[in-house]
Structures are given as structure tokens and as C-alpha cells.
Amino acid sequence: MPLIVMCGYPCSGKTRRAEELKVYFEQNTDRKVHVVGDSPLAAEKNAAYADSDKEKQVRATLKAEVERKVNKDDIVILDSLNYIKGYRYELFCLIKHAQTPHCLVYCLTSDDVSSAWNASRDAEEQYTQEILDALILRFEAPDSRNRWDSPLFNILRDDTLPFEAIADALFKRKAPPPNQSTQSQPLSSANFLYELDKTTQDVLMAIFNAQKTSVPGDRITVPGATEKMELTSSVNMAELRKFRRQFISYSKMHPTENTGQISNMFVQYLNKSLH
């Protein structure tokens, strides 16, 4: 199914625009339209966005719901902040696997407008000013030069949605090609597998041990890597091992000739997965 990813500051009009798109496609196509949103979060959203682990759970739940509704006939609109570029990349990978097009609708507002719209909401639906400011500060604006942010539709508060252009982006474009990881790839040499196993284990232990003397916000130096691990919160060994298994599975399908880059690649993978 084509996927429309809404994006923007908190209180920037995303839900109103999502509803406008839903009405348009229901009236002008024979397709079912599903809106996946974080509205059930409602009164709990301040607690969720104040806790990185809870926020990751929210994003994972939304992504899983989108994935469950994937088919080639219906339209899904993901109505949430979607403010992290790494998360938008994950959604792009999802639609590549499903072989369906997508687009991004970016609702542009200023800090002041979002703050005013937030204040006009019922008290139980408002963000605290502290959470609102933090989310705006952390916001990673979409860039149409990134394939996961393209096609990109920038919408100002008084704009009329370009319904036909959005429909063309969904129905007249080819789906992106599937990931190579879905196709059979030969394993690399025994030496590569040995280096992959040893290097990732060394990185894991270095991060685990460094956490004993580090605090969130520190950048951890990893042996053999020029990249630094960005520690946003404590990560237990079980979670680190899970990411190591995922990285090893991916690397077996995409072996590199330069084993000296494994440390950097693994640190980059961890930074993307944990943020």
C-alpha cells in the first residue's frame, strides 16, 4: 500500500492534514485509507517523550502497526512526529520490502505558532512547555535529497494540500527496488567471518565497560574505530547482543573486503539503532 508519512513539530497541524488526505482519497479512489497515529498516547505523551526508552517503544508500536497494514491496495497515513531521520529511514526500508511507493508531508510551523496551538488545546492534551521545547530542539528536518525523505511536500499553515501531486507520487511512481538483503548472497571468506565475530565482540565489551564510568551524553571511544559511540542512555548487555546479532546477519549478506572498517560500521549501526 502507498504510505504517507506525516512530519512536523508537535502541534503543527499534522492530524488535520492527515484527515484532509483521508477524506480526499476516500472520495476520489476506491482504496481503503488507514490512519495510524499516536492519539491513543494522549495524556501519557509527556511521560513518553520524557523517557527515551518509552519513546522508542512508541515508535516501535507505530512502525509495527504500519507494517501490519502493508498491502498493495490500501493507503496508510502515519500521523506522528516522525522527527528522527533514522526512524524515517526505517520506514523507507519497510516500504522497500513491501514494494510500494511512499511520500512525506512536512507541516511547517514556527516555534511560536506550535507553542500557541499547544496552549489552545484542552489541558489534558497539551505538551508541557519543557517537552515541547525539547522535541522542537531535537527535530531533524526532512531533506528531499535523501531518498527516504523523497518525494517531499512542504506545507505551510495556510496552504491548500496539493492532493493531485500527492496522488501522483503514490500511484504513478514505481516502488523502490527491494533491499539486496532479501536476495541470496554468498558468504565471504572464513577470515572475514572470524574478524566480524571478534571485532563486534570487542566493540561490545568496550561499550559495556565504558558505561561503568560514563554518563548519558558522553561519546565513547571504541578500539579500532574512528567513530565514537554516542551514549544517550544506559544499554544493557542483552540489548547490545541483540544489535550485534542483527549486525552480523546483515554483514554476512553484505560482506566488506576491508575488515578494518568493521568497527566503524558496527558503531555507526549501533548509533543509528539506539537513537
Distance N to C terminus: 27 Å
- The low-confidence parts are 180-188
The geometry reads as globular
Oligomer class: single chain
Count all strands and give the number: 7
Order of helices and strands: EHEHHEHEHHEHHEEHH
Mean pLDDT: 86
Instruction: Strand order, main sheet: write it out.
Output: 2-3-1-4-5
Task: Classify the beta-strand content into a percent band.
Answer: 5-15%
Main β sheet profile: 5 strands, parallel
Q: From the alpha-carbon coordinates, what is the Rg to the nearest angstrom?
A: 21 Å
- Secondary structure class reads alpha/beta
Helical percent range?
40-55%
How many separate helices?
10
Describe this structure in words.
With 275 residues, the protein is of the alpha/beta class. It is 47% helix and 12% strand. It is built from ten helices and seven strands. It has helices at 14-28, 45-49, 52-68, 85-98, 111-119, 129-138, 163-171, 190-210, 237-253, 262-274; strands spanning 3-8, 33-37, 75-79, 102-108, 152-156, 219-221, 228-230. The strands form two sheets. The chain has a five-stranded parallel β-sheet with strand order 2-3-1-4-5, with helices on both faces. Strand 6 (219-221) and strand 7 form a beta hairpin. Helix 8 crosses helix 10 and helix 9 (237-253) packs across helix 10 (262-274). The chain is globular. It starts with a strand and ends with a helix. The model is unreliable at 180-188 (pLDDT under 50).
